[in-house]
Design brief:
single chain, 219 residues, alpha+beta, ten-stranded mixed β-sheet, 3 helices, 24% helix, disordered N terminus, disordered C terminus
Length: 219
Amino acid sequence: MRFSAPAKTLVLLLVLLVAVVTSSRATTVRGGSTYGDNAGLLGCEAKIDAFLADSSNLDNCEGFAATTFNIGGTTYAGALFAFLQPDGVNGVLDIIPLIGSSLTLNLVNPLAPTGVFMCGSFDDPTNPTVAQDSTLTDMTGLPCTAGSSPGYSGTLNLAGVQVNFSGNEVTFVNGTSSGLVVFTEDGNIQGTTTAPEPGSLMLLGVGLLALGRKIHRTS
């Protein structure tokens, strides 16, 4: 069968459209280690706010709080992770360990940082299985994928791991025998609910109680 010039153009456009709608990108990764001291989630978020208000207030940090994500009726035990790099790059991420071999997320913005969350940073040769802050103290309880990212973030060829984007969806496929932990920006997952762990609720309650006592004393 021969195609005329217009028909060839149409076929080429259809092929390009398929390539755009469904794509497999180089795997974006971000490390969980050595951003700064572990200030806890709220502490690091406060430092981020101070930096955004005045860029001279750069006090690099990281911190997390365990939480659960309800995605498509399935509950995932993950974490919220805040970071402020020494160069000022910052953010808050949803950290989600896969249950089974795949996970599909419907994203608000598929161009927002999304990928695999590694334990180490800067090509740590020890192939770490736990994230550490800048004092090399273990951040026990923060889910992460064994291994290390180049720098704080970058791209890696992860054997057996696929990250496929289609429209506003991303599907992570884990073809390995090891656990896979993924991330996206906090608030970037459509149709999900987040619930803080009891420990986080207790800390919030203590803070509110202290605030109430302070207001009472000054009234």
